[in-house]
């Protein structure tokens, strides 16, 4: 079992506070979990030119010729655990957390914000080092949608890992490039905000890829009405990926963090916004607005439909 000490030691060795998310971080993840769980929990086994190859994703060049493609469900939980610890360690090193003696906590429950044991906040910056919090303890909420971005092959004979290209060269849809990941993240943010119209607790979606342009309008609308405080990518190494991918926006709805100094500035701005007790700025909220909206979306299972209802009710 991987312990807190193991994570902390690895992140120190990788100097993630200098590099943020990188190829070395992904290699560190794979090496750590290979020791614990073995090849089959992390890699797809592919027969290629009469040789057995192991890949984290099916390369696009061979995918079309494969009759059957498996799905490694177990890896999702492992990368989820790893990325939550990664963000916790990184955020703990920011200046404002240190200066204000705040805490970074995973899997937080806050009934006042609709955060339950079955649907906790992935990461929270708070005034207390506890999992169960009151909303007044919380300075920032983060929903983490990160995964392996690059493709890796593994050679068990030499115990070696080789990078095989970024997400444009394989069949996977990592991080926020999966439509269901985007919808789950903004759906969670909308639900939290429905419990918190009175003041702004910043809610950010944390990823390690750019955003596909098809979701930009939704994100911008939610950002302009303070339902989310933006998408933060912690991976500055995909600048060569263009086309339909959004790395940054002028409004700040999507931001790619370049380094720790940039992250420090962003965190300072977000937490300052919470401290200002700024009232939420959205259209035509009356006393029954929250209850009516919650009632309207309560039984809708399609996250996209629920979000559209919220946007429609807000007139955006």
How would you characterize this protein structure?
With 316 residues, the protein is α/β, with parallel strands linked by helices. It has one domain. It contains 11 helices and 12 strands. The strands form 3 sheets. The protein has a 6-stranded mixed sheet with strand order 3-4-5-8-10-12, sandwiched between helices. A 4-stranded antiparallel sheet has the order 1-2-6-7, with no helix packed on it. A hairpin with a 2-residue loop joins strand 1 (44-48) and strand 2. Helix 1 (4-14) crosses helix 5 and helix 7 crosses helix 11 (303-313). It starts with a helix and ends with a helix. The model is unreliable at 281-286 (pLDDT under 50).
Strand % is: 15-25%
**Helix/strand order, N-terminal first:** HHHEEHHHEEEEEHEEHEEEHHH
Instruction: Supply the number of helical segments.
Output: 11
Q: If you compute it from the alpha carbons, what radius of gyration comes out, rounded to the nearest whole angstrom?
A: 20 Å
Class inferred from helices and paired strands: alpha/beta
- Helical content band: 25-40%
Shape label: globular
Poorly predicted segments? 281-286
pLDDT average, as an integer? Answer: 88
Number of strands: 12
Task: Characterize the largest beta sheet: strand count, sense, and whether it forms a barrel.
Answer: 6 strands, mixed
| End-to-end separation | 47 Å
